[in-house]
Amino acid sequence: GLLGTAGQANYAAGNTFLDALAAHRHAQGLPALSLAWGLWEETSDFTGHLAEADLRRLARSGLLPLATADAMGLFDASSATGEPVLAVTRLDTDALRASGGGIPPLLRGLVRAVPRRAAAADDGQDSGGGLVERLAALPPADRGPALTDLVRGRVAAVLGHADPGAVDPDRPLQELGFDSLTAVELRNQLGTATGLRLPTTLVFDHPSVGALAAYLLGQLAVEDTAGDTGPAGAVLAELSRLRSAIERAASDDAGTADRIAAQLRELLDAAEPAGGRTGAGGEDADDLESATDEELFALVDEFD
Question: What are 121-141's pLDDT values in tens digits?
Answer without folding.
Answer: 444 444 556 788 888 888 888
